[in-house]
Design a protein that fits this description.
It is an enzyme of class 1 (oxidoreductase). It catalyses: demethylphylloquinone + NADPH + H(+) = demethylphylloquinol + NADP(+). One of its GO terms (biological process) is aerobic electron transport chain. This is demethylphylloquinone reductase. It is built from 13 helices and 26 strands. Strands 3-2-1-7-22-21 form a six-stranded mixed sheet, covered by helices on one side. The chain has a five-stranded parallel sheet with strand order 9-18-10-11-12. It has a three-stranded antiparallel sheet with strand order 4-5-6, with no helix packed on it. By secondary structure, it is α/β, with parallel strands linked by helices. It folds into four domains: 201 residues, 3-Layer(bba) Sandwich (FAD/NAD(P)-binding domain); 136 residues, FAD/NAD(P)-binding domain (3-Layer(bba) Sandwich), CATH 3.50.50; 38 residues, no CATH class; 34 residues. It is 29% helix and 21% strand. Helix 1 runs parallel beside helix 12 and helix 2 packs across helix 11.
Length: 543
């Protein structure tokens, strides 16, 4: 019953109940002639920069006029909104923050003349439920279950979707909330396809990407694990290694750099998949794994990793990554691991040079067939065109937008930021982590605060409610530490079931939740029958 209470609390603690409603909306072409609803490439004549003219200063004591597009920009294809008077909300990024904000806006009750037109822009055609990417490697889930297409999720809503990448952002709202009533444009977004979008309200939820340029060789030889494409690439690499490496003297070696949640979940999942055919080595600069995790989760993870013979190299950082063929070419015959010269192996292998981060440890080199990188990330906020300082978004050192407690970007009342794109601190002054749980809750508040801003109501300050932490540790193993019961950790099959139920509840739409729930139930039934048959076979053969 504990995991049921935990799952229920996810919905109960949010500020407002999410009600997904709305009939089949009519689909129409929003774009100028010659452009489809899924632009991928634009005219080759478009330059990297776009010339935006600056408005002249207004009369003394009066509000300055809003900036106008230059003659050059007027030649760009402009996204055509269906209604001229209704508010235009553009959401950049279709992850947890962006998609769930769009669905939140759709669920709220609006005055007929103020219900916004919502456009969601993302570079991928699919929404990815990232906490369950590991289950693709273990074979527990199918791709459609955790990565449905936006077109399917938004089919019964009024939200429009564009598959494209953001090239340039030019906000106008630094001129103030109020302008001419007939010219309330909050700014423009230029996409890589060349399409220009004018908006009244903007939501920045672009997420983040792995940061590989901090260690020589990482960008060339390491694989990341943060997108659907990453997961498919890792799965294909493992399948190739499983086909080509077999026998006692042909071990598959996987190196996982980083032992935060992502690194530990990867190490546990891959070690279970390889079993006796390979070995997983996990490297972390800290002296422990998951240093910020609850004690129960960390202990459960350590127990699982130990049982699967995962080698933990704690207190080390990776100095560089090289290909074996490059080591051979350099004539470095001293790079040895476990008494074997790695130059004897083929060029598909890699060498990781480890340096100690603590006293008492010695430098060493690791050999790996596959290197997975889970350390560091950088936000994907669009690069702004060089212009006057009032045009710039306030960014912190990591490239995140500084927001107030209502999730509005400071100095830009028509722009909201959340998830990896936002820099927001809790009541103690601590920076909120860039996790799915934070983005879930921010999306509810962002949707509500957009409603409040459009209807001239007070905005709500965002308050993060930590519901606990979860991690997968294999096909039938997980660890959950709910925040509402101190010291409680659900692990093993119970933790696994609780985690899947909690994530089933958090899937984007009721229709998708229903289809996935049926699929998971059917898989569980098949697995149970197979287990029963296996048990009966062993009993009968033993007798």
């Amino acid at each position: 019953m504990a995991f049921v209470a935990y799952s229920a609390s996810i919905t109960a603690l949010l500020p407002f109940n999410r009600i997904f409603s709305g009939g089949m909306g009519k689909k129409w072409n929003r774009l100028s002639p010659g452009y489809s609803a899924r632009l991928r490439a634009g005219p080759s004549t478009l330059s990297r920069t776009s010339n935006f003219s600056s408005a002249a200063a207004g009369k003394a004591g009066g509000a300055p006029p809003l900036p106008q597009l230059s003659e050059a920009d007027k030649t760009l294809p402009i996204y055509t909104w269906p209604h001229k008077k209704k508010p235009r909300v553009c959401i950049l990024g279709g992850g947890f923050g962006g998609l769930y904000t769009a669905l939140r806006l759709e669920s709220l009750l609006w005055p007929e003349d103020k219900k916004p037109q919502v456009l969601l822009v993302d570079q991928s055609e699919r929404f990815v439920f990232k906490p369950m990417l590991y289950e693709l490697l273990s074979g527990e889930v199918d791709e459609w279950e955790i990565a449905p297409r936006f077109s399917e999720l938004l089919a019964n809503t009024g939200v429009e979707f564009l598959q494209d990448r953001v090239k340039l952002l030019h906000p106008f709202d630094h001129w103030g909330m109020n302008g001419h009533k007939q010219s309330s444009c909050g700014g423009t977004v230029l996409l890589e396809s060349g399409l220009l979008i004018e908006y009244d309200w903007l939501v920045l939820a672009l997420g983040a990407e792995a940061k590989l340029d901090v260690v020589p060789g990482a960008l060339e030889f390491a694989l990341t694990f943060s997108t659907l494409e990453d997961a498919c690439r890792v799965d294909e690499k493992l399948k190739t290694l499983e086909r080509t490496k077999f026998g006692k003297d042909s071990f598959i070696r996987v190196a996982v750099v980083g032992c935060g949640y992502s690194g530990v979940e990867l190490a546990a999942t891959i070690s279970e998949r390889l079993q006796d055919r390979g070995i997983v080595q996990a490297i972390n600069v800290e002296s422990t794994i998951c240093p910020t995790a609850p004690t129960g989760n960390r202990e459960a993870a350590l127990k699982v990793l130990s049982s699967r013979k995962v080698q933990l190299l704690l207190g080390y950082f990776v100095r560089c990554i090289q290909r074996v063929s490059d080591v051979e070419a350099s004539g470095d015959a001293t790079v040895i691991r476990e008494g074997k010269d790695i130059a004897k192996h083929n060029s598909e292998k890699y060498v990781l040079e480890l340096q100690p981060a603590e006293k008492g440890l010695e430098s060493q080199n690791l050999e790996a067939d596959l290197v997975l990188w889970t350390v560091g990330s950088k936000p994907l906020l669009p690069e702004l065109e060089p212009c006057d300082k009032p045009h710039e978004l306030p960014l912190n050192a990591r490239g995140q937008a500084e927001t107030d407690e209502t999730l509005r970007v400071k100095g830009h009342p028509r722009i909201f930021a959340l998830g990896d794109s936002a820099s927001l601190r809790d009541s103690t002054g601590k920076l909120l982590p860039a996790t799915a749980q934070v983005a879930f809750q921010q999306a509810d508040f962002a949707g509500w605060n957009l409603w409040a801003a459009i209807n001239h109501r007070p905005l709500l300050p965002f308050r993060f409610q930590n519901l606990g932490e979860m991690m997968t540790l294999g096909r039938n193993d997980a660890a959950i530490s709910p925040s509402f019961v101190d010291g409680l950790t659900l692990e093993g099959p119970i933790g696994h079931a609780a985690r899947k139920l909690a994530y089933l509840i958090r899937l984007p739409t009721e229709e998708h939740r229903f289809k996935v729930g049926l699929s998971w139930f059917a898989k569980s039934a098949v697995d149970s029958v197979a287990l029963l048959q296996s048990t009966l076979t062993k009993v009968l053969s033993g007798s």
